[in-house]
Design goal:
Strand order of the largest sheet of chain B: 1-2-12-9-10-11
Distance between the termini of chain A: 14 Å
Strand content of chain A: under 5%
Order of helices and strands of chain B: EEHEHEEEEEEEEHEH
Number of domains of chain B: 2
Number of helices of chain A: 4
CATH superfamily of the largest domain in chain B: RNA polymerase, RBP11-like subunit
Helix content of chain A: 40-55%
CATH class of the largest domain in chain B: Alpha Beta
Largest interface: A-B, 21 and 27 residues
CATH architecture of the largest domain in chain B: 2-Layer Sandwich
Radius of gyration of chain B: 24 Å
Structural class of chain B: alpha+beta
Enzyme class (chain A): transferase
Helix content of chain B: 10-25%
Main location (chain A): cytoplasm
Keywords (chain A): Cytoplasm, DNA-directed RNA polymerase, Metal-binding, Nucleotidyltransferase, Transcription, Transferase, Zinc
Shape of chain A: flat
Number of domains of chain A: 1
Order of helices and strands of chain A: HHHH
Largest sheet of chain B: 6 strands, mixed
Cofactor (chain A): Zn(2+)
Shape of chain B: flat
CATH topology of the largest domain in chain B: Gyrase A, domain 2
Oligomer: heterodimer
Number of strands of chain B: 12
GO biological process, one term (chain A): DNA-templated transcription
């Protein structure tokens, strides 16, 4: 639903990078790998948290 | 204990992550320090939440879980295990509630990261709560762990054995961690792409572990600095040893 606060595997805080990642790699044209390098998300366990995430608040909110 | 001759050197050093080379450790003691950093150094974390209003798309429990994972700055000199600090948040949609919106009753204990989204609020939705953060150790709950992916490797000594055979293929020699060069320099392997054939092209090299020398990789979640984490871990080992001594002496 919302981006998880921390990486499931290592416990590093990844939530803070989501909005910049979304803006640059999802909505923008930049390469996701390069954006993650730039954000300092180095381990592949943390990278998958951002790469595989999908916001669902907009999908769920009409059914409140 | 026999006369220990420790030698500490920072290979890389940042506020939240560092690589520290420590010489003169036994493997058991190195592991003791690692475990103390993970399980015994306490941090503040939200533990109880009293919701005033939550009309967001997420349940109270889901928000409570997210709040527990937000790292809080922890001045360990000022607080003891079990101490609580009250925090509060009040955000009305349309807006996103961020960890930075959380207000603390204690200026020293506040969210370490300001941009962690808690929940996105639509028009007419509101999130208001009061929460208690507790100082506890990582062994009570993983959310209280100050150290993130704390580990160590042996320091590896690289020695040049001579030239590579004239007709041998140049093969990559992948190595990770920190090496000690024949000149006595301490170099992280990512400086030369983790490949020894890049640094010593055309040479025959041998790699061996340096006994008693460990390179710790330490990261914190922002609760305190790496140095603080390491010092507190060592303190906690000392405290337990002292307690054991007084119990044995009686």
């Amino acid at each position: 639903m919302m981006i998880p606060v921390r990486c499931f595997t290592c416990g590093n805080v990844v939530g803070e990078h989501w909005e910049e990642f979304k803006e640059r790699a999802r909505e923008g044209e930049e390469d996701p790998g390069e954006v993650l390098d730039d954000l300092g998300v180095n381990r592949h366990c943390c990278r998958r948290m951002l790469v595989s995430h999908r916001d669902l608040v907009d999908v769920v909110s009409p059914y409140q | 204990m026999t006369e220990a001759d420790f030698d500490v050197e920072y290979v890389e050093r940042d506020d939240r992550s560092a690589r520290v080379l420590i010489r003169g450790l036994t493997p058991a003691f190195a592991n003791g320090i690692r475990r103390a950093m993970i399980a015994d150094v306490p941090t503040f974390s939200i533990d109880t939440v009293r919701f005033v209003e939550n009309s967001s798309v997420m349940f109270d429990e889901m928000i409570g879980l997210r709040l527990g994972l937000v790292p809080l700055t922890t001045p360990l000199d000022e607080f003891e295990i079990g101490d609580t600090v009250t925090l509060a948040l009040d955000v009305e949609g349309p807006a996103t509630a961020y960890s930075g919106d959380i207000e603390s009753a204690e200026a020293m204990v506040e969210p370490a990261d300001e941009n962690v989204p808690i929940v996105e609020l639509k028009e007419g939705q509101r999130l208001e709560f009061e929460a208690d953060a507790v100082l506890e150790a990582g062994k009570e709950h993983a959310k209280h762990q100050g150290g993130v992916s704390v580990g160590y490797r042996h320091l590896q000594r690289v020695s040049v054995e001579g030239d590579r055979g004239e007709f041998d293929d140049e093969e990559p020699r992948i190595l990770r961690g920190v090496i000690e060069t024949p000149e006595g320099e301490v170099v992280a392997t990512d400086e030369f792409g983790n490949d020894l054939s890049e640094r010593y092209p055309g040479k025959e090299v041998r790699v061996e572990d340096v006994p008693g020398a460990f390179v710790f990789h330490i990261e914190t979640d922002g609760s305190f600095t790496v140095e603080e984490l390491l010092l507190r871990a060592i303190d906690s080992i000392e405290e337990r040893a002292d307690e054991l001594r007084t119990k044995v002496a009686v």
